[in-house]
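LAB NOTEBOOK - FOLDING QUEUE
OPERATOR: T.R.
BATCH SIZE: 2
PURPOSE: Compare the predicted structure-token outputs for two unrelated chains run back to back under identical settings.
PRIORITY: normal
REVIEWER: second-year student, initials M.K.

ITEM 1
FIELD SEQUENCE / FIELD STRUCTURE:
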Amino acid sequence: MLKRILWAALAMIGIVVAVLAWNTWRLSSRQLDVKTIAPLALERDAVAARLAGALKFRTISDAASGDTNAEQFVAMQAYLEQAFPRLHATLKREMVGHSMLFTWQGSDPQARPVMWLAHQDVVPVAPGTEASWQQPPFDGVVKDGFVWGRGSWDDKGSLVAQMEAVETLLAQGYQPRATLYLGFGADEEVGGRRGAVEIARLLKSRGVQLDYILDEGMLVTQGIMNGIARPVALIGVAEKGYASVNLAVQTAPGHSSMPPQKTAIGAISAALAALEKQQMPVELRGVARDMFDSIAPEMQGMNRVVLSNLWLFAPVVKQQMAQAPGTNAVLRTTTALTVVHAGNKDNVLPGRADAVVNFRIRPGDSVAGVMAHVRDAVNNDEVHAELDAGASEPSPVSPMESAQYALINRTIREVFNDAVVAPGIVIGATDARHYKDVSQHVYRFSPVRAGKDDLPRFHGTNERLGVDNYLEAIRFYVQLARNGQ
């Protein structure tokens, strides 16, 4: 009897091993085959200098007022007009507040127009960190093969690269078949309400339906994803939603010498601890699953085996990925405890305690689902939960089996020919989410390479963009325009 059980167990193990091996072996690459293209010749020093010039303007946006630093936006726009004379002479420019909408008329009025997005505004430098910058953040310095300054990556690098591409194409006598719009918001960093929202509303009022939209977003990452040596270029096909929930506990204030069993601070702390412990579920499906299905064939060793057999290993993969902040954010609606207020004197029990919890909502979840989760996790009627203004649902997921996605995919493979291309979810917020009414094909990709050391520079200290990296970005936009014809 024991021998039969042993043989049965060995047979089952053999079947599982055979299935694992078969699934791993039959997994074929999803990467597009493209021809190598010759790099576009660009004047390296002049190109770098033009981007550096745009970084000298302190175009810091303010949620409270669209006129904050207005003179800086006006001055930068005048600089761009001087730096890109062909573009400004040929394209129609419309001002939407301090945001800009350019129209490059196509030769075929029946062709659906396309739109590239970028933003003019930047985040401020964190007070007290100025001395930590290797180059002053608003001096626009080109040194050691980099363009240094706030906005070099986020997002003046994309904006000026798009202008360089258009200027280059104009110099070659090129005219697009489909009309190309350039939408350059002035308040993306504070929500885009006065820029992208109004530009999208203007286009909608004119009956414009766009073939595709391309905004900033995912990157060409190097050495960030475990198990794959090649760069990975992720095309953002969706972005997460946003919800901040205000929690409040109201009790009678009192003297600290006679504390009751339940206090406002204790109740709010228990609520926050419950929310941090009871996270929303990790889900290996939808875009996240598509991303791994695209990357798995390019992996080696056990990583390939595991990702080729998620029917068996999904629980392990989810558990492991939930441990790292970056991958955890891809697989679930995240919970971040961001603000706490309570008390103002050491011997007084406060009568009120407040907190804010920020959720970034994955596609498939919703704002209503977040609120239901908060109520269930906190499970205390004394804790009042209220949705803060400015919440937004996750964006729609743009089609991956489409000519528009294939166009961007192909262009990436031609310019970054060593990269593996896959779909992804943008975990932050971009202007692109405001354009869902004028296009069903909204994609988010920044054509720049990034390693582990580069990621902290976004909104951080020593933001910089490699000159060679920047040249690739310009080549990407030129090739994208030509491929779209």
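ITEM 2
FIELD SEQUENCE / FIELD STRUCTURE:
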Amino acid sequence: MRLRKQELGDRNLVGNRVELVRKQKGMKQKELLAQLQVNGVDMNASGLSKLEGQIRFVTDIELVALADILEVSVDYLLGRDVKNK
């Protein structure tokens, strides 16, 4: 497992929770990227790493896909709700 080289950014609210839930599910970034592709979201490894590091903005389409794939609510990813849908 690699450690993040850059400090956390401030460009999104969801990155920390995406990373947390992904790891709780035992999912690697490659697996999440594959699921995003299946759901029509084109993102590369660098983009996901930057998203999780809160360095890059998240689109609404990405937000909905991430919530669906990780089986949490959009509100949860935004820090507004509990984990379950």
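REVIEWER COMMENT (ITEM 2): The chain has one domain: 15-77.
FOLLOW-UP: none requested
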